[in-house]
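Homework-ish question, so no full write-ups if that breaks the rules, but can someone show me the predicted structure for this set?
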Amino acid sequence: MKSVVLPPSLKTLLPAQLHELCIGAYYKKNDRLFLTGKMPESMFYVVAGEVTLERTGLQGEPVVLQRTRQGFVSEASLKVSKYHCDALAITDTNVIKIPIKVLADALDKDSEFASRWISMLNLEVRRLRLHCERLSMKSVRDRVLHLINTEGQDGNYAIGTGLKTLAGELAVTHEALYRTLAALEKSEEIERGDGFLMISKKPTDQTRTAGSTP
Amino acid sequence: MKSVVLPPSLKTLLPAQLHELCIGAYYKKNDRLFLTGKMPESMFYVVAGEVTLERTGLQGEPVVLQRTRQGFVSEASLKVSKYHCDALAITDTNVIKIPIKVLADALDKDSEFASRWISMLNLEVRRLRLHCERLSMKSVRDRVLHLINTEGQDGNYAIGTGLKTLAGELAVTHEALYRTLAALEKSEEIERGDGFLMISKKPTDQTRTAGSTP
DNA sequence: CGTACTTTTGAATCGCATCAAATCTGGTGG
DNA sequence: CCACCAGATTTGATGCGATTCAAAAGTACG
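A: Not a homework solution, just the prediction itself:
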């Protein structure tokens, strides 16, 4: 029942003795992974699906704090005695659960592990800052170009789960994204292939005579 | 020359032997704190002002990776042999510089410190996720309400550096913010005071008869 | 071959950015 | 104390870009 195949990133991150303590779990859409006020017992790592953290606003409306498609749901709950929000599966979701007590102990005692954990958090911080910067841009065009420039390899960005999902990540409607991509392609600013987007290589300035760009 | 007053957050975070190694520094607008390709020697903590991390895009245009008004500029450079971006002071800025080698060593050897560092990163991750979620909202109204609900204490949010700065953080124009605040105040959804915004307390449902909310 | 989902295009509308300008504010110097 | 300036705050008018609603075309899958 307990045997799980860990994704490579988790396998290298976690010390060996923790591997066998990891438990796979499956949640159906609208299931709750944990509830506000409960004591954290596991760290959740989303393998597939989508989970949100939600709190109840002052007028009773739900406030989304976070949305995770891949990775840890609540690193921050590592040292907390009770949850301050609910975790909700908004699609069918697969996660890996790591016993939180053992994890915290390992972090205290195994400084190599702590170091890797810090690196993981550093990466997460960088990713999030890029994402914030992208979302601060007002036009879909700018967000798309920023995405390809920052998340892509050398101007080449692999579309993961489809354009509709991507639209959600860019916080725009899928219609707007489709139109913008079409426009960028027509103006030859990007090229589109099967599952990827690419910044068009401008002809080098050597080929132009001075002043051709007013 | 070296004596600096550390902000409380840094003082509690850093182990004592690091305190005296911290150096204050001042940068004028458009100064660079560090350059791409250089080896990181210090960790930068912004005390006042504003710093951006920038990379050069494929077409030579600057791409902003991060914007920091308060806190560490590049935790992620902790374990990296050279910078992958420039740090640019976009206003006159005060920072505290911490020698990076000593810092990294301390993190390896002092597990208490490592633990605090992890907590600090956890906090940062949470903050950033909230910020992303906020920027994903399409209307200024929603962003403002989300801000008060999540950053405020009990529905009460203290405006830090003025509304114009706040507008920048919400990634909207100051005009839009002013108008939205005025509208929210008129509709009695929020109250405004000197330096704070507050969610209006709705009359409790006790005062209503059942079914008043269809 | 039908069903569900993604991709695409069209048209109407709305919110925000933008540009402009007026008012208010605190601080400075005469 | 007043005149004056720089910056923040506010209100107005206009246009653009994205949302929204609608619908068609393409694609995967059983």
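Now go work out the reasoning yourself. Hint: Chain B touches chain A through 47 residues (CB under 8 Å).
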